[in-house]
Write a structure and sequence with these properties.
By secondary structure, this protein is an alpha/beta fold. Helices cover 32% and strands 19% of the residues. The chain has a five-stranded mixed sheet, with helices on both faces. A hairpin with a 5-residue loop joins strand 2 (44-52) and strand 3.
Length: 200
């Protein structure tokens, strides 16, 4: 992480539900308990996202279709264009979803391996991906204990927050550093296991 020639990013996909999330909250004893409406729907909106660990810079793309090799490839190309401008080699932490290994973009990844490479986490270890904390923070700040009568309101509040994070920020940098310090700098981790997971 101290290599000035490398930029470490973390990427993942997420769905945000229109029905939001209900969480415990503190209410003064003299105040009547609030009633939180809950929309009876399964509608959701999906996003590809990536965060640069050294400064919290955030990139995102709304996905109106499915997460698959085609849509992930499109996001990879956008992420590369945005990330390699620093002149550093970009290493992107990601999980082992099948479409992250897809043949569709295998040749493209090989072509750009000198300046842009995916580094795969060990199987079944989402807690090692720093961007998972970004999704939790987004839910807490944007969706907890709120009512959304239409999905477009979820999109508006989430993307307003995402836009605030585009240029880098201390909040995401510190948030991702929690995972970074606990996992990648721990004497109990085995960093050589990263990037060696075989394609499913």
């Amino acid at each position: 992480m101290e290599d000035a020639a490398v930029d470490l990013w973390a990427t993942d996909e997420v769905h945000f539900q229109q029905h939001g999330s209900r969480c415990r909250m503190w209410v003064p004893p003299e105040t009547k308990d609030p009633v939180l409406l809950h929309h009876p729907t399964r509608r959701s909106v999906g996003y590809f996202g990536a965060v640069r660990l050294r400064d919290g810079k955030f990139q995102f793309s709304r996905e109106t279709g499915k997460f698959n090799a085609v849509t992930f490839f499109a996001f990879l190309k956008r992420l590369r264009r945005a990330s390699v401008r620093t002149g550093r080699r970009v290493v992107v932490i990601t999980d082992n979803a099948r479409y992250h290994h897809a043949r569709l973009h295998k040749e493209w990844r090989a072509t750009h391996v000198e300046d842009f490479v995916l580094d795969y986490l060990p199987p079944y270890s989402p807690e090692l991906n720093p961007i998972e904390r970004v999704w939790k923070l987004t839910r807490r700040q944007c969706l907890h204990n709120r009512y959304f009568p239409v999905l477009e309101e979820v999109v508006a509040v989430v993307e307003t927050q995402f836009e605030n994070w585009r240029k880098g920020n201390e909040t995401l940098r510190r948030l991702c550093a929690i995972t970074l310090d606990a996992v990648f700098r721990s004497p109990f981790t085995i960093p050589q296991s990263m990037g060696t997971s075989p394609a499913p």
